[in-house]
Amino acid sequence: MKLCVIAYPNSYHTYRWLRYFVNRGHEVHLIADRHPQREFVNIPNLTVHNLAAITNIPKARYVIWSLAVCRLVRRLQPDILHAHQVALAGWLGWVANYHPFVVMPWGSDLYQYPQRSRIARFLATRVLRAADLVMADSQNLVNLAVKFGADPARSHVVQFGVDLQTFFPLDNATELRKRFGINCGPVIFSPRALMPFYRHDVLIKAIPIVRHRFPEAQFVFRTYIVDPPDYVDQLKTLAQNLGVADAVHFVGRISRYEDIVNLHRLADVTVSIPISDGTPMSVLEAFACAVPVITDKNLPSLREWITDGDNGLLVDGNSPEAVAQAIIRLLTDDRLYNQIRQRGLQVVRERADHTVWMRQIESMYLELIQR
To answer: Residue ranges of the chain with pLDDT lower than 70?
Structure first.
């Protein structure tokens, strides 16, 4: 099978997807809509086509990239053209007018982006109507894709899945604490990118409440290369103004996949409270490491995975008080804490095994080719 994927290259979601199909012996081409970082495309036998190397001039690049993708796809003649995300990658795939065409919304590209303008909404509709197959990681996201024009009979829930051979619980995190410079005390981890969309300010405002009960509590925020510097500075200033800067750790760019695993294992509690979401891998990875998760109660996709008080806690993500009390509840109720750990681990093992899902997706590709 010759597979051509249009995607943001600097994501472990993209990396694992590509690696699976390359390792299965398929011919795989990545059309990268950003300059790829080496660690994300260092996959033997993967062919990378870097659109940003052609031109990266704002606005004008979309026209030039569209022409380049049309020519490239016609030359490659892939068995499958797959756009990861509706925005940009999906637009480029739609303009190519090539089939079979697969589209996979990731979350905010469908929850948020079409709301920005009529043009964005028009493009989302065109992309999804053109798709021969739509994949999404929650039923809620599938339903939204259908509202935008996707064929219900060809729209299915799939998962990126968690590598359960890599993400698993660790009994003792003492050495990890030393490696990351974290002192004693419970560790609360925020794995999402430092953008306003993910409401890290709410978590920082919750810190004084948590520290009143647990003075040694430490809060770890993972940073990404895409984080806007101004917002990161605002978070640091907020922590200083609240007198909790000593409790906040911003862990720099992670270049090793193993360190992502270790950050999860380091945590006693994971907090993820974005404004909207699909099925975030960071939550499932926390489950796989047996770390209890607190997330927003108003996210339909997360409610497909989390039952409040059973395998996680659902709160008002706009309320620092609610977030703080949920953290305190987990840290003071051993029975609840251990129940949530075990139930989360059970759920991810039953429903989100990466290998199982990728085999199913490969079968879906092959079935589509044979139509």
So the answer is: 253-258
DSSP per-residue letters across 47-70: EEEEGGGT---TTHHHHHHHHHHH
Where is 239: in which H helix or E strand? Answer: helix 229-241
Per-residue burial over 43-61, b if 16 or more Cβ lie within 10 Å, else e, is beebebbbbeeeeeeeeeb
Model confidence, pTM: 0.89
Considering the domain architecture, whether residues 139 and 215 belong to the same structural domain is answered as: no
**pLDDT given for residue 255 in this prediction:** 56
Which residues span the domain enclosing 237? 174-351
* pLDDT for the residue 95: 97
Q: Considering the domain boundaries, does residue 168 fall inside one? A: no
Same structural domain for residues 94 and 178? no
Give me the sheet containing 218-222, strands edge to edge: 248-251, 218-222, 187-190, 269-272, 293-296, 313-315
d(CA 359, CA 361): 5
Which two structure tokens, joined as six digits, stand for 93?
């795939």
Could you report how far apart the first and last alpha carbons of the chain are, in Å?
Answer: 14
Same domain, 11 and 123: yes
- The answer to whether residues 131 and 269 belong to one domain is no
DSSP tag of 307: -
Q: State both tokens at 271.
A: 């907090």
Q: What are the residues facing 238 on neighbouring strands?
A: none
The CA-based angle 347-353-357, given to 5 degrees, is 125
